[in-house]
Structures are given as structure tokens and as C-alpha cells.
Amino acid sequence: MSNKLNNPATEELVQPIPEVEREAGLKNLISLISDEQAEKILASYNPNIVRRIFGDGELMRTADCFLRSSLNISAAARNIYMHRNTMMYRLDKIERLMGLDIRTFDDAVTFDILHKLYDRKLRSGK
Q1: Rounded Cα–Cα distance for residues 50 and 46 (Å)
Q2: Is the separation of the CB atoms in 97 and 103 below 8 Å?
């Protein structure tokens, strides 16, 4: 029985996608969202809460590190020299305020997209 992972013919299929390409992929997808659609998406969340969370540097530093650590609480806490319980408290705060548990993949992606749309809105001055 052959192992597909060690088969040179399928070697190209198992190569990891570089972080730069993955990020560019998400940015490309978000660029396809019109300003009108972005407004509707952002409006589905309380604008005061969105502004509060995305405007909080420490909370966003925590969330960004958590997302970049593949949703691993312990690794993220280590990466920013934070106690694991503090990391969990901040993730709980995001969930309590926004209703998004970014410890789950779907909510993490939603949060990341919302943040990118919010940043785009701020840069455009609208």
C-alpha cells in the first residue's frame, strides 16, 4: 500500500501555502466586497461595540496574536508574554460584546473579515 504523502507524484498537493499568499487571498476576497455591502455587513453589529473593540489597541493586539497563532490560546499567550488566563479573559470579552467566539474557526474568520472591512472604512474616511 503506497502512502500518498510520500509519493513524489502528489508532492505538489501537500505543500503548505505560504502565509503571505494566504493573507493576500483573504485581502483579495475582501476587495471584492463593495462599500455598500461592507456597510451592510458592519451594520449587522452594534457600531459602538465594533468601534470599541477595533479601537482598543490591547484587545486587538491580543486578538491578532491569537488569530496568527492558529487559534491556540497557550501559544498566543506565550508569544505576547501574557498569562493564559488574561488571554482567555480578553477573548471572552470579545465574545461577550460582539457575540463572536473567535476560538472557533467560523467566528475567527468573521471577526478577521469585520476588522479588515472596518479598517478599510476608516482609511476611506466614510
Answers
A1: 6
A2: no
Q: Is the CB of residue 45 less than 8 Å from the CB of residue 76?
A: no
Q: What is the DSSP letter of 45?
A: S
Q: Would you place residue 13 in the very low, low, confident or very high pLDDT band (cuts 50, 70, 90)?
A: low
Q: How confident is the model at residue 112 (pLDDT cuts 50, 70, 90)?
A: very high
pLDDT at residue 22 greater than cutoff 90: no
H or E stretch at 108: helix 105-124
Cell readout for 49 is 461595540
For the record, the C-alpha cell of 113 comes out as 473579515
